[in-house]
Specification:
about 350 residues, alpha/beta, Rossmann fold, 8-stranded mixed sheet, 13 helices, about 40% helix, globular, binds 2-acetamido-2-deoxy-beta-D-glucopyranose
């Protein structure tokens, strides 16, 4: 006997399948900080206008007596506990106050379901105001934190005293000449390309992609050895060892509210279509009253040099420093952190590295 499946049943089945697929792509709500069952809040925080809180950590000299105030934007899957390598000597010699904070959705900072490039810049501004920084402050964006630095340059230029973009992340969908984006994109591992492509073209499915088990995930996103040079791995292994010893950095803390509001948002914002073109940003210091610099390693496998060079060429007011044998761990190479800070605050051209750097 032939089995006749009524159309209604087919429709219901299809709806169930689609519903499951949809559910699978929908991220769970973030764990609520400080709520019963949620992660406890263990850092000082400021309250923003929209009611969210940002968690911060202070270092260097006392805020009230400091000559320079510098805010650091941490990288992907990191938190305010990840130090930028500024030596104690230089902090004391120059009188530098360092402010680290968890970007929205990371660590102890509340998630921001409306997070965009612009909200990252206004978060920085509100944080600085809440801590009475005064008119201007310095910012340093590291790797993924680089997009927050670009956003500050675009949205709050008048608040900036200087900007250092340190191995700043790039977007393959910025308005770039085809040969530049193709060359850089083509050098990526196919697993990275796939992942970045989905972040750009199908951001609503990106969470499902990040959590699926069928296809191999991007080594860059996973922070796997394939994403680093040998020198990077040497430097980072030593750094992780020190962090473990100090007990100050808990790698799980970055995503304690879930990966959606932290990692997913970072990647879909970075690789999304930007509402401004970084190569069109105006010089915030036309009278030379501040420094904007980009620091890039020639061998960096995470942030490819071709795009960085193109952006730097388009913005002649940016000081571009390319280290010929560095990878993504450039800021953690001996003395580089202090050189970055000296140039940012004093305008000093990097001394020891000068001949190698200005590529
Ligand atoms: C792209 O093309 C321009 C103009 O032909 C050339 O100057 C540049 O070096 C090329 N860049 C890359 C990365 O191939």
């Amino acid at each position: 006997m032939e089995m006749i499946v009524p159309a209604r049943v087919v429709l219901v089945l299809a709806a169930v399948v689609l519903g499951c697929a949809y559910q699978a792509t929908r991220p769970p709500p973030p764990a609520i900080l400080g709520a019963p069952g949620g992660p406890p809040v263990t850092s000082p925080r400021v309250r923003l206008k929209d009611g969210r809180h940002l968690a911060y950590r202070e270092a260097g000299v006392d805020r009230k007596t400091a000559k320079y105030k510098v805010i650091f934007f941490h990288g992907f899957a990191s938190t305010k506990e990840n130090e930028f390598p500024v030596s104690r000597e230089i902090a004391e010699e120059l009188g530098i106050y360092l402010l680290y904070f968890d970007r929205a959705g990371y660590g102890d900072s509340d998630a921001n379901p409306k997070r965009r490039l612009k909200s990252d810049a206004t978060d920085v501004e509100e944080l600085a105001d809440a801590l009475h920084f005064g008119d201007k402050f310095y910012v340093v964006g590291i790797s993924m934190g680089g997009y927050t630095a670009w956003s500050c340059l675009n949205y709050i230029p008048r608040r900036l005293a200087g900007v250092a973009l340190v191995v700043p992340a790039v977007n393959y969908w910025w308005p770039l000449p085809v040969n530049v984006s193709r060359t850089a994109y083509g050098k990526l591992d196919v697993r990275d390309r796939r992942t970045f492509w989905i972040a750009h073209h199908m951001p609503s499915l990106f969470y499902a992609w990040l959590t699926q088990k069928w296809f191999r995930m991007s080594p860059i996103v996973r922070g796997e050895p394939d994403a680093f040079t040998e020198k990077d791995l040497e430097i980072l292994t030593e750094l992780r060892r020190k962090e473990r010893e100090s007990g100050l950095v808990d790698p799980a803390k970055a995503t304690q509210q879930g990966t959606y509001e932290s990692l997913c948002r970072d990647l879909t914002i970075l690789f999304g279509t930007w509402e401004f073109d970084p190569t069109k940003i105006k010089n915030p210091f036309p009278d030379g009253e501040g420094v904007v610099s980009i620091w890039q390693g020639y061998e960096d496998k995470i942030v490819r040099v071709e795009i960085q060079r193109y952006v730097a060429q388009k913005l002649p007011w940016i000081r571009y420093h390319e280290h010929p044998v560095a990878g993504h761990a450039l800021p953690n190479m001996d003395g580089v952190g202090d050189e970055i800070i000296r140039e940012l605050l004093l305008g000093e051209t990097p001394r020891g590295l000068q001949s190698e750097l200005d590529g």
